[in-house]
Amino acid sequence: MTDVGYHVSHEQFAPSDLLEWVRRADERGFDHALASDHFHPWSERQGESGFVWSWLGSAMEATGMTFGTVNAPGYRYHPAIVAQGAATLREMYPGRFWLAVGSGQLLNEGITGTDWPIKRERNARLEECAEIMRRLWDGEDVIHHGRIDVERATLYSRPETPPPLFGAALSEETAAWLAEWADGMITIGTPDHEDDANRIESFNKKAPEKPVYLKAQHSYAEDEDGALEGAYDQWRTNCVPGTVTQELRTPEDYDELAERIDREDVEENVRVSADLDDHLAWLEADLEHDVDRVFVHNVNTNQPAFIDAFGADVLPSFG
Are 294 and 302 in contact (CB under 8 A)? Predict the structure, then answer.
């Protein structure tokens, strides 16, 4: 199996198209997939966001790939329901499903009308949710009263082994904290490996034996203009610096803030190139820096061409 996976972007594409493309990725040599779990897209230009838990069953039946998703339990999802969904997929497809959890963004979690806590409180709620899910996977009759309430919950359909529970980190501080309780870490890969390396180092200092996954933003097209313009159109809302985006409520809010982002900003956040050798070099560098698996997110809209090109000219280097 390769150490390179395909990112399934539910914000950008219809679920039916993504099912077709994940089949294609499987056929072209991708062994792993990471699927996003959001209620809203990051931009009105993207304009999608299918329900990943419905989609995952179809995708896992249609392919032989492993799958993971990043979820924010404790707001629009109760952790007992997340634990049930993850256990069902893992029982049906042994060893092929893993779960990551993060503290979330108001864009997605605010739809239930919940008060949006500060980051420290969101982290505390996240760790509490992780504990509840693990107890359910262990077969306990769970009673819990805290930030989250659980009353006499027992998970009857359980896999032979529970899903690995990763944590999502965007900062060195979060990475170090995750190392204390998560089974692994997933973080973001950028053109400049320095920030990525710092987060990975913070995690590895406390948990050197635990795996690290990377979701890397790439933009591939047949020419340089197409690679850059596609990234600028689709992904500039995700290039806004700082933590302010965690507090935005609607895709329109993201689009408004992204008006300040230019193409140079995009190139600092997305690996933009029409040269497959560049993409190969970026991925090789990732895997040389204590990263166990990289999920390539081609933020451009040309998914079939990207899958075919990477399958033919990039993935063989990692076989």
Answer: no
CB atoms within 10 A of CB 260: 11
The model carries a pTM of 0.96
Any idea where the domains of the chain sit in the sequence?
4-318
pLDDT digits (tens, 9 = 90+) for 51-90: 999 999 999 999 999 999 999 999 999 999 999 999 999 9
Q: Taking the CB of residue 39, how many other CB atoms lie within 10 A of it?
A: 16
* C-alpha Rg value of the chain to the nearest Å: 19
CA distance 95 to 36: 20
Q: What is the largest CA-CA distance in the chain?
A: 58
pLDDT digits (tens, 9 = 90+) for 243-288: 888 999 999 999 999 999 999 999 999 999 999 999 999 999 999 8
Out of 3.20.20.30, 2.60.120.280, 3.40.50.1480, 3.30.70.60, the CATH code matching 4-318 is: 3.20.20.30
Per-residue confidence (pLDDT) for residue 1, from 0 to 100: 59
Strand stretches in the chain, DSSP E: 4-8, 32-35, 66-71, 97-101, 142-145, 149-153, 165-168, 184-189, 212-219, 271-272, 293-298
What is the C-alpha end-to-end distance of the chain, expressed in Å? 6
